[in-house]
Amino acid sequence: MRYINLLGSTGSIGTQTLDIIRNSGGELKVAALAAGKNTSLLKDQIREFKPMLVCTADELSLDALREEFENEKTQIVYGKDGLLKAAAFEPADMTVTAIVGMMGILPTIKAIEAGKDIALANKETLVTAGHIIMPLAKEKGIKIYPVDSEHSAIFQCLQGEEHKSIRKLLITASGGPFRGYSEEELKKVNLEQALNHPNWSMGKKITIDSATLTNKGLEVIEAHWLFDMPYDRIEAVIHPQSIIHSMVEFCDGAVKAQLGTPDMKLPIQYALLRTERQGINEEPMDIVRIGRLDFYEPDTNVFKGLKFAYDAGNTGGNMPVIFNAANEFAVARFLNREITFTQIYELIERAMSGVKLVSAPDLETVLETERKVYEYLSDYLGGTA
Predict the structure, then answer these.
(1) Is 212 in the same domain as 354?
(2) What burial letters (b/e) apply to 111-132, b meaning 16+ CB within 10 Å?
(3) Residue 199 gets which letter from DSSP?
(4) Are 316 and 327 in contact (CB under 8 A)?
(5) H or E stretch covering 293
(6) pTM of this structure
(7) 3-class secondary-structure state, position 39
(8) Would you give the DSSP letter of residue 98?
(9) How far apart, in whole angstroms, are the C-alpha atoms of residue 377 and residue 382?
């Protein structure tokens, strides 16, 4: 029996992780759950999975949970301190980080320091603090299992292979709902169109990131850290069918690809079971019915998020933090209908040129950079209102 700490239990990855645990035949159990403000769903999860520790976002939901579960054996905590406690909670030996944004950095560090392997579903952690996280994991002897479908695909392709034999990583992208659009057409898209992903069912933020191709840029930076690969050997490829999740090209010209239906349960289970394979109660892929697999070069002149990511990664320092924070800020404004779709690019570019570059940021500087980006862009929008 293996115990899991799950951070972000009420989100898309979190609920699918609990599906895997539910169907594990008792092999996987929940030690701790951490969630945001979806108290109703969290209550249902507590009743079913009976965790020993639960962390909620604020005191208001804390009181509601304590009142309902006062006679249970579940310890209920809240806020940042509670989240860190959940990340490192015993007796779990793995922590799933499925919370969104840079708030995933500190609990990931806490879990690593407590000796927990990491099932990583929070790409911002490595995008902004990979230079801190990866050396720490190596020092502590901790394994990081990628949960993103693309990074899981690469991870699977690399099993049994030597790092020196890798020539190139090929990360696939569906192209989102606007593949083939011109810059002028992109200026006219609205929120509902951007949230209508052709293949994947995901949270709102990552769906918008996929539409801008910024998500693929974040994945390029994450792959750089996960697989110790320079940026000129990581290539993004548009693959509309979303059947090949990523590929690895080797020095002898061979290419390995991991194929599967657009479903996150496989990479989640592969991480939770530490590369063991078990059956999933999903319809198997019918390769004959699929018929064809297409590939295209991404248009980075129109979908600038990918270009900005390569620029940020190659610049280094805190530039990936600036890139990520600016994107988070801009996407939140777009979801609130305060800016247009293409203004997301405008705000990212402005922050990358206007916020101070720090060549070797420590953790405090990483977190401070995020705050400075938000202040800088808030001032900019206030001045252009």
Answers:
(1) no
(2) bbebebbbbbbbbbbbbbbbbb
(3) S
(4) no
(5) none
(6) 0.92
(7) helix
(8) -
(9) 8
**Residue where one domain finishes, among candidates 119, 146, 173:** 146
Q: Alpha-carbon Rg of the chain, whole angstroms?
A: 20
Three-state secondary-structure class, residue 276: coil
Say if CB 382 and CB 338 are below 8 A apart.
no
**Structural domain range at position 324:** 316-385
- 37 close to 58: Cβ distance less than 8 angstroms: yes
Nearest to 80 by CA among 55, 102, 46: 55
Tokens of 242: 């979303």
Name the residue type at position 92. Answer: A
pLDDT one-digit tens code per residue, 251-300: 999 999 999 988 889 999 999 998 888 877 677 888 899 889 999 999 99
The CATH number that applies at residue 52 is: 3.40.50.720
User: Which comes out higher in pLDDT, residue 201 or 159?
Assistant: 159
**DSSP code at position 285:** P
CATH of the domain at 337: 1.10.1740.10
Q: What is the pLDDT of residues 355-385, one digit of tens each?
A: 999 999 999 999 999 999 999 999 999 865 4
Contact in structure between 225 and 124 (CB atoms under 8 Å): no
Mean pLDDT on 204-218: 91
Strand-pair category, 166-173 with 234-238: parallel
CB atoms closer than 10 angstroms to residue 196 = 12
User: Residue 338: what pLDDT?
Assistant: 95
Rounded Cα distance, 55 and 76, in Å: 6
Predicted confidence band at 60 (pLDDT cuts at 50, 70, 90)? Answer: confident
| 8-state DSSP, 333 | H
